[in-house]
Specification:
The protein is mainly beta. The chain contains three helices and ten strands; from the N terminus they run ββββααβαβββββ. The strands form three sheets. The protein has a six-stranded antiparallel sheet, with no helix packed on it. The chain has a two-stranded antiparallel sheet with strand order 1-4. β2 and β3 (about 15-20) form a beta hairpin. The radius of gyration is 19 Å and the shape is globular.
Length: about 210
């Protein structure tokens, strides 16, 4: 179970300008207002033994508009960076393996799964540092008349705690440019994941004996 207790979003473009932090009183989500419904909700994320997530269903109180705001209409994209599909052991430092993930920006991916090349960079203080390259195919993106789309950056990194198998930090950066008819527009998405462990269980309730 995952409690989503904070969302930060910052965009700057002619079509969408938002600087929102759900933890800041008075902060305005603007066009992303539907995402505010997700804050404070607990999500059940099915994960198999290899670290691959299944379909995430919205909890009670989350409407279709909130999930549609993610672009693909699927909550799986929201939690894709919280997990990593692992290969059969052992994995040596420097060794690569392939996986796939859904990304949050459907304007670049078309909502399709993206192949990922993962590489174990090092083991440091009981944690695996993993470099990731996302193989985004711009031909899968929605077509825009007279415009050509190129992917400028699609990469990230992830830190996996070996003792628990938990992702304790991850960053994904995705940049794309659409150009044509004398115009150009850029899109830059950065997803940062900083999960916090669940608090320890409190004391057992008093029984009166």
């Amino acid at each position: 179970a995952h409690l989503l207790h904070r969302i930060e979003a910052k965009t700057s473009s002619p079509m969408l300008g938002v600087d929102w932090d759900s933890d800041v009183k008075g902060s305005n989500p603007g066009a992303l207002a539907n995402l505010a419904e997700l804050v404070g909700k607990t999500f059940l994320v099915p994960v198999d033994e290899h670290g691959t997530i299944g379909k995430v269903e919205p909890p009670a109180g989350v409407g279709a508009q909130a999930t549609a705001q993610l672009g693909t209409g699927a909550l799986d994209t929201l939690f894709g960076q919280y997990f990593i599909a692992l290969p059969p052991p052992p994995v040596a430092v420097g060794g690569p393996w392939e996986s796939s993930v859904k990304l949050l920006d459907p304007k670049v991916t078309g909502g399709n799964e993206v192949k990922v090349t993962n590489r174990l960079v090092e083991i440091r203080e009981g944690k695996a540092v993993i470099e990731r390259k996302f193989h985004v195919d711009p031909s899968q993106a929605p077509k825009m008349a007279g415009m050509t789309q190129t992917v400028d950056k699609a990469e990230g990194n992830l830190i996996l705690e070996l003792a628990t198998g938990r992702v304790v930090g991850a960053v994904m950066q995705l940049g794309a440019t659409a150009s044509g008819q004398g115009q150009s527009a850029s899109s830059n998405v950065r997803v940062t994941v900083n999960p916090e462990p669940a608090p320890p269980p409190g004391p057992a309730p008093a029984t009166g004996r």
